[in-house]
Amino acid sequence: MSALCEGRVVIVTGAGRGIGRAHALEFARQGARVVVNDLGASADGRGGSSDPANEVVEAIRAAGGEAVSNGDDVADFAGAGRLVECAVRSFGRLDVLVNNAGFLRDRMFVSTSEDEWDAVIRVHLKGHFCPARHAVTHWRERVKAGEKVEARIINTSSGAGLLGSVGQATYSTAKAGIAALTLVQAAELGRYGITANAIAPAARTRMTEAVFANMMQKPNEGFDAMAPENVAPLVVWLGSRESADVTGRVFEVSGGVISVADGWHEGPKVDRGQRWEPTEVGGAVRDLLGRARQPSKVYGAS
Q: Using CA of residue 29, residue 34, residue 38, residue 43, what is the dihedral sign?
């Protein structure tokens, strides 16, 4: 039996540690050739080193796989272009882009600085846009040349992006934007043979260990539900040819659990048939809220 992603060419951003590292290793185990992208920065995005990416590449090669490292900044448009060029130059093409890179600078909203806001929005939201924009150009050019493309974009949202999280206003905003971006990509890019899906993972990483120390603690025995390796199987399947009929979805994944996130829907409505008077709005809104489904609580809210 051939491996699930035999011969596929995959970019994984933020692949030097944690969830991204697990993605890269599993793609390679399933026969893919992998571009391991990582700046080697700290958990808050400062500093940098090529060591984490190089170590993952060495592990893949030691297991008989093919991989190259890349240290470009995914939130720099030119750098993201070089990242896609690295895949094409090294392996002849690109088939799968896994956008995973990110970091945290958590604050309560009232304490969040402009610099912290800009840095987190940049790495998560712009860091999803830039590589995907260059990847889509590559795929569209191949389609125009008469080639059949079976391309995949896999984005990384978060439960914080789906529900919000106290103390993580900036991160939650970025991750919510990623979920919406995924829906638009799926709607626009299907004509080129490109699917777009997102995951909202829960696993032990440098970021989550700092925020949810008790939840992320490794058990002394038994199944390690928070191991980052538990997230990779879904991502690898979404990157395979088998997933061609799945697009525009956000999946929550943790441990042995996979679920489909149930996003925004139109709720109950009322139509007065003419302009409302402000004094009439309160009663109508309270009636609508009484008939609407109650929203899930924001993470960390009492």
A: negative
Q: What is the pLDDT of residue 210?
A: 57
Among 158, 165, 172, 243, the active-site one is 158
- How many helices (H) and strands (E) would you count in the chain? 11, 8
- Mean pLDDT computed over every residue of the chain: 93
| Strand partners for 154 | 98, 197
Residue 272 belongs to some domain of the structure: no
Of residues 2 and 265, more confidently modeled: 265
Q: Which two tokens stand for residue 1?
A: 């039996």
DSSP per-residue codes, 243-301: GTT--S-EEEEETTEEEE------------SSPPPHHHHHHHHHHHHHHSPPPPPPBT-
Here the CATH number for the domain that contains residue 131 is 3.40.50.720
Q: Is residue 267 situated within a structural domain?
A: no
Mean pLDDT of 115-128: 97
The position carrying tokens 């984490």 is: 52
- 33-48 pLDDT, tens per residue? 999 999 976 565 566 6
* Residues across the chain: 302
Q: Which residue range forms the structural domain that includes residue 224?
A: 9-260
Residue 241 pLDDT more than 90? yes
Beta bridge partners of 197: 154
Q: How many domains does the chain have?
A: 1
Decide: residue 114, CB within 10 A, 0-12 exposed, 13-18 middle, 19+ buried: exposed
Whether this prediction's pTM lies above 0.85 is answered by yes
Active site residue 158: yes
pLDDT of residue 40: 74
Distance from C-alpha of 21 to C-alpha of 27, rounded to nearest angstrom: 10
**C-alpha distances in angstroms, 236 versus 20, 167, 176, 187, 197?**
12, 32, 23, 22, 12
Q: ∠ at Cα 261 (255, 264), nearest 5°?
A: 160
Question: What mean pLDDT comes out for the span 87-101?
Answer: 98
